[in-house]
Design goal:
Helix 1 runs antiparallel to helix 12. The chain has one domain. The protein contains 14 helices and no strands. With 336 residues, it is mainly alpha-helical. About 2% of the residues have low confidence.
């Protein structure tokens, strides 16, 4: 395998670890309510950081943007808006279901659609039977792992002495919210995959493929800003929690750390896609999500979500991690 492949795998692994832990600081935000933390997280991750990265890393950024048509901007923005709704639902799912189960449901559906839609839409003519068999087998094993992880979380939730991570609402309702989130979540990858005209324009003005990818994020993420800000302001007004911004520290640091981890993960994923070749925005997305699930599950264990879970729940979680590891190997082989 070429060296660039292993560089891409390393980048996507680090990106998955960062994304898998990006919601972890939310557990330590004790002075602010969810909406206070989410507002700061949204502004930093969707506006401040993507524009900083693009301006500092992409040569002649605005000259590249000037070459694009309105439709070339509109497509990633619209997909980004759909993902923005999912981002709001994701934050709610984390609070109601815990990290391991929420990631399993949301990322499971997001991985399935986010991998297959760009693969068939952009590379249909290049798909041989052997490649399809490897991809579908890898996805099938991954879905088994996700199902086992979700079932393990369900057993944990039903345990009479479990430490519940559900803060409000019924379990079934929380799962429905997570499923809806999962259906919308891959729109972030659609925004990146179908916004590659922006990266091409950045490459034409003298940027490498890895750096050109940074030009896509400020545009795609702009669409996701409105749903996140809108919901945060709605809750701030409804719950009258705007006054909590008077106590800035330490929660502003946790919200900023969440944003740094999340945007850093997206930036590394964008770079890894250029190293992984033509299937980087499809199979690469699947690998990225698997690393996220595994990291989130292990973080949930470390932070005590599974402390009181029955042995059967922990066993299911362990088998699910083995399945996800096997799926990683198969998808990596398919992309080599």
């Amino acid at each position: 395998m070429p060296q660039s492949f292993w560089v891409g795998m390393l980048l996507i692994f680090v990106a998955g670890v960062m994304a898998g832990d990006c919601m972890l600081p939310l557990k330590w935000a004790t002075r602010w309510q969810w909406e206070n933390t989410w507002l700061v997280f949204s502004i930093v991750s969707l506006v401040v950081l993507p524009w900083m990265l693009a301006i500092f890393l992409v040569h002649d950024l605005f000259r590249a943007y000037a070459q694009l048509s309105l439709i070339q901007f509109a497509i990633p923005i619209l997909f980004g808006a759909g993902w923005g709704v999912a981002q709001v639902l994701f934050g709610i799912s984390i609070r109601r279901l815990g990290m391991a189960l929420a990631y399993a449901i949301v990322i499971g559906l997001g991985t399935l659609l986010g991998t297959l839609v760009p693969l068939f839409a952009q590379h249909r003519a290049q798909l041989g039977k052997s490649l399809l068999a490897e991809v579908f087998t890898g996805i099938a094993i991954m879905l088994v792992g996700i199902t086992l992880s979700a079932w393990a979380g369900h057993i944990r939730e039903r345990a009479p002495d479990a430490v519940s991570v559900t803060t409000s609402g019924r379990y079934g309702t929380a799962v429905v919210v997570a499923v809806l989130c999962g259906l919308l979540a891959p729109m972030l990858n659609y925004s990146f995959a179908f916004g590659q005209d922006i990266a091409v324009a950045a490459a034409h003005v003298g940027n490498s493929d890895a750096r050109a990818a940074y030009a896509v994020w400020p545009i795609g993420l702009a669409g996701g800003l409105i749903p996140n800000l809108g919901y945060s302001f709605f809750l701030l007004r409804k719950n009258r929690t705007g006054r909590q911004f008077h106590a800035v520290f330490p929660d502003v640091l946790w919200a900023t750390l969440m944003a740094i981890l999340w945007m850093g993960a997206m930036a590394l994923y964008g770079m890894s896609a250029s190293y992984l070749g033509k299937f980087g925005t499809s199979i690469g997305w699947g690998l990225f999500q698997i690393f996220m699930i595994m990291t989130a599950a292990l973080s949930g264990v470390i932070t005590g979500e599974w402390k009181s879970a029955p042995p059967s729940a922990r066993n299911f979680l362990g088998v699910s991690l083995l399945c996800l590891g096997s799926a990683t190997a198969l998808l990596a082989y398919a992309n080599h």
